[in-house]
């Protein structure tokens, strides 16, 4: 996908290295550290989980040019695996999340190797179809408990010392998970691997002629993205103490597309902004009489028609010293 | 009892196959519309499921609000959905043709959310019953199963529509353009045929087919805002399996997969929901362009 | 460079700003200002008609009996739609209790959602009054010291309808089961009763919640050859499956008979008597049984335009009992009120001498009813003929049988 945000992306990437951006980052971090004293921690944890999910998704679309319409499969499956291992096997939360992440990565390898056989629109449709298959599996496999989901997942004791039933302990744990995931993505984007990925996005035949085995790069990106989406899903299962069909439904895949599109594809901060906005908006709308899907759909349409760069992309393009 | 086939009573086997054929009728109608639209506009119409639902709702509203019956609805509802499609194409979709095709997918996804959300807001998610038309009530005892007349009619109607669409595309001049556009859009554009009117009409025709499928579905599946959303993903898989290259391919794949689903319900019911997706994965492994498609 | 800093700062501010406004918007309302009753149920889906706004109407009717005030504080009734999703239900419950100061959660049809909400209310020590959900697990392995199961449960349905159908000659059974907590439990409880009564279970097929097309499931039921095709589903699913069964001529041959294991008066109303006639069902409430029920139902009808289902009538009864317990206990503290509720007998138009077991089960008489033929009915809502009364201690399990670990 020829992302119109490539200018912004470059800016964002450069900004990531500059000292000013570092200041902004530190301010944001400070805010995240004190936030639970001002806001409902459950809400913040939800934002962080979705922010990580959106960042993982963005790694694929924003830097690899691959629009996956089935990322809920990884998010939701990891949630199920984490919930199951923690509740039934009695594992500690960090091990549960780890296993969820590993499971999502495994699925990423499998789905990725099927989906990257086609490009563009077909890639999106295939990922969507495969995730729908996961949805039906989740509906029928005994361990997922169908419509009920896996309920009453214990939050447990982190590393054997920190009791996650304390809201603040839980929040800081989620924050650490998020920062870890964000750092992984930051490193990836700035590594030679990330550069090759961007080269493939811009012009795949040229990358091939340069001797890169592009399929292998795409598959690695897909797997990493799936794994991080899984990490977000597993963490969410611990926070909300349940894993349900909502997490594997195609609407969830659509939601993460929206978060990324709204925040700004191909920017590092965009998905975080998008996730915060969408979660806050849904929270706000839930208390009103407005139909949530209609508003979400309208934002979708507006994003596609009016500002394809997304919020972060627009801001960075306008103030960041000219896009391309 | 007539004995068994592979240890399965024939009632169950033929019954499920017939039900599969009925499902296949809807897959075929919807994937036909998707293929026609894709051929001309290069847009994967994510709103297709929502427009199918809209067709059903329009006929339900015609009946409950205006007292217009099924047979008129069969004509009016697709026209209304088609007109809605033209509006959608003119105001929104037409702005995106110069961009990557994925934006078309994203835009129609947003439209699908809005349409579905709107109906859901006003009518809730539970199905609204739509009575079977008087002339098609009752059923036939086929020996191996009891076939409600209406379901038989759905198969016949879908076959007629698919066949006549196919013939129209094969035999008429408009069809020739369409066919050419499906095969090689760039060349057709070079001939200057890709006038906006034709694009709009093609989109309208494609979504009208979805609307028609919606009317046919109303008495069977009830009229519910969510009826299109899960169906459309299966149809996407059908389209991937068939490949976008051929109109006939889309139709045949639709019926074939419906039958296959029915067969799965006999031998391993648990897998009936996922069999289409498994087939899709297998086809992609062997022939990435789809059964009837060609690599572009 | 400055511009870049600005951009970053703007982003951060934006994020924080939205987060702040979203968080604080719902952070108002301190618990203790009022007794807040949260009616949480399906308000847009297949279970809307059996609970929905009607349950909120019933809860408000109970509050009005106390003059809208208790211990000098106003009683508020708020509502939300859980959309039959356990995650949405438990999130709303959590937020209601954490942020909005809700003291009691009412109704919650859909056993799956109810089980999820029970986890939250147990954890937060808040009262949970369940009228909508069916599964007997809510007072069994998933019981809670502050959870109360009021109107009916799967075991009562099994004892009522299951036994009655076997007695009528339904010796072999095939289940059409909603594939979640409720359906599974209803199937299990009924199968146990059927076997106990000497019947035989031939098999079962599971369908997803909110199914629009039952044809392939019905075909499986048809080819099983069982005499009774039992519908272990509810609400919209029951309505659709009964309709399509008649479309496919399931009962036409006379060899097979449908048994709706859970039928509400709203379902019968939607089906119409010509389709629903002669179905046998078990219910905890029917409006036309005595003067007290008729008088209350008439009041409800004037407000809501429909006769109450057992869920809606049960919501009234449960909220009323809850408020009486607050009055008696002088506090709205969850565990204290729960203990008080269990001490006091339930006496109102819904239940006579109802008693609440240690596991939260409210034991009251259930009724076996038959749906009237169109010719027998005198008008709208004149639907049931009561065949028998099932004494409470026969319909519901004892604490020992329930498997609830709270029991002392």
From TrEMBL, chain A:
It is a multi-pass membrane protein. The chain crosses the membrane at residues 20-40, 47-75, 95-114, 121-138, 169-189, 219-244, 256-281, 288-307. It comes from the Bacteria. InterPro entries: ABC_transp_permease, LivM-like. One of its GO terms (molecular function) is branched-chain amino acid transmembrane transporter activity. Its main location: membrane. It is found in: Cell membrane. Keywords: Cell membrane, Membrane, Transmembrane, Transmembrane helix. One of its GO terms (cellular component) is plasma membrane. PANTHER family: ABC TRANSPORTER ATP-BINDING PROTEIN, HIGH-AFFINITY BRANCHED-CHAIN AMINO ACID TRANSPORT SYSTEM PERMEASE. This is Branched-chain amino acid ABC transporter permease. It comes from Azospirillum griseum.
From TrEMBL, chain C:
The keyword 4Fe-4S does not apply. One of its GO terms (biological process) is amino acid transport. Residues 35-372 form the Leucine-binding protein domain. Keywords: Amino-acid transport, Signal, Transport. Residues 1-27 form the signal peptide. The keyword Transport applies. Pfam families: Peripla_BP_6. Gene3D superfamilies: 3.40.50.2300. Belongs to the leucine-binding protein family. This is ABC transporter substrate-binding protein. It comes from Azospirillum griseum.
